[in-house]
Amino acid sequence: MPRTLDPEVRRALATRIRYYNEMGIYDFYRRPSAATDVAATIAVDEEEEPVSANAVSTNYAESGEEMSPRKATAVAMPVAVDENIFDAIALKPEQSVSDPVKALKIIREDLGDCTRCVLHKQGRKQIVFGVGDPKAELMFVGEGPGADEDAQGEPFVGRAGQLLNNMIKAMGIEREQVYIANIVKCRPPGNRTPERDECATCSPFLMRQIAVVKPKVIVALGAVAAKTLLAMSASMMQLRGRFYDFRPAGVRSNDPNWDGCKLAVTYHPAFLLRDPRQKGEAWKDLQMVMKELGMKAPQTSR
Ligand code: URA
Predict the structure, then answer these.
(1) Is 13 or 202 the better-scoring residue by pLDDT?
(2) Region 137-142: what's the mean pLDDT?
(3) Is 50 exceeded by the pLDDT of residue 240?
(4) Starting at the edge strand that comes first in sequence, how are the strands of the sheet with 244-246 ordered?
(5) Which of the four pLDDT bands, split at 50, 70 and 90, describes residue 232?
(6) Based on the number of CB atoms within 10 Å of its own CB, is 241 exposed (0-12), middle (13-18) or buried (19 or more)?
(7) Per-residue pLDDT tens over the stretch 284-302
(8) Residue 18 and residue 269: Cα distance in Å, rounded?
């Protein structure tokens, strides 16, 4: 017999689920054996790894070792609980909006004057949300804002941004035709690499942006972007040269025409500025992307 939850329990349950969501945990499974134990409410199985899609497996050590794919966290649930509660919470507010500009605005508002990680108090001037065509077929994801981006509030506007612009031009398109964002939206002090927990805290917002833009291809620029998006740890050499099937972690697609996209990994433009000999390799990556998107490079490029 389906049981109706006491409103107070229901509210407590919703609060707890929201708490897990904020940690990047979205998938909840019922254990068949939990049927008898209503009092079990929600207890995360201690045996399981945490499931925060990006937090779990992002290991920035260049170990070359692939991490296990994200695991589902088992949550003991009473049977026949009003399951709509999960649907309601798992669906993001922007997913009920068809205009991607408005949807992105909702995510930006949700982010607010973010204080979720330490980067907010380490000298950031502003949050760098993302820029470009909200219906772009191609999306670039970098690591995090630098000084220029922090000052201007737009990703990739400094020297690395100039090179990214040239890379985009070489593909025969304009910067305005793609969408550009970063794993973290606040400048790490001294341009240090963002910490794992900072990436894990911030990237759920990027995942939601991806689910709104619904690109056909994402290009992860550098190891931090690649490892966070793919939730795996491997060297750039291992990560490049192929497509991955990508779905934004923690976001359920409610669009029958978009169930994820392809993801390719290439070198970060800042790395290419330091080692221009690798530009040829990056160009190979971009050519692979262009082929996937049916694009032709202009004759004059390169
Ligand atoms: N590097 C990044 O990863 N992102 C930017 O926006 C600028 C530089």
Answers:
(1) 202
(2) 99
(3) yes
(4) 131-132, 179-182, 138-142, 217-221, 261-266, 244-246
(5) very high
(6) middle
(7) 999 999 999 999 978 764 5
(8) 37
CB of 142 within 6 A of ligand 1: the answer is yes
Instruction: From the CA of 221, give the closest atom in ligand 1.
Output: 3
Ligand 1 centroid – CA 95 distance (Å): 27
27 lines ligand 1 (CB under 6 A): no
Query: Among residues of the chain, what percentage have pLDDT more than 90?
Result: 67
Which pair of tokens denotes residue 156? 């990739």
Put residue 157 in one of left, alpha, beta given phi > 0 → left and psi -120 to 50 → alpha: alpha
Residue nearest (by alpha carbon) to ligand 1 atom 7: 156
C-alpha 255 to ligand 1 mean position (Å)? 30
Q: 251 near 212, Cβ under 8 Å?
A: no
Q: In this structure, what token pair is assigned to residue 71?
A: 């695991």
Instruction: Quote the ligand 1 centre to 144 CA distance (angstroms).
Output: 5
> Pocket of ligand 1, candidates 157, 178, 182: which has the most ligand atoms within 8 Å of its Cβ, to mutate?
182
Alpha helices in 61-172 (DSSP H): 84-90, 100-111, 147-152, 159-170
Tokens of 194: 């963002």
The owner of tokens 């798992």 is 90
192 phi-psi bin (left φ>0, alpha ψ -120 to 50, beta other)? beta
Question: Quick one: average pLDDT of 18-40?
Answer: 47
Query: If we measure between CA atoms, which residue out of 270, 228, 233, 188 comes closest to residue 61?
Result: 233
User: Given this model, what pLDDT does residue 33 score?
Assistant: 42
Cα atoms in the 13 Å half-sphere on the side-chain side of 151: 5
